[in-house]
Amino acid sequence: IRENLPPGTLVTTLRAVDADSGAFGELRYVVLEQAVGDPSTGDGRDAFAVNGSSGELRSRLTFDYERAKAFQLLVRATDAGNASATVTVRVLVTGEDEYDPIFLSPSFNFEVPEGARKGQSIGRVLATDEDEGVDGVVLYTLAKPSPYFAINQTTGSIYLRVDSQPQAGAGRAKREPREMSLEVQARSPLPASRVASAQVTIDVTHTSFGLAPD
Question: From the record, what ranges are coiled-coil (predicted)?
Answer without folding.
Answer: none
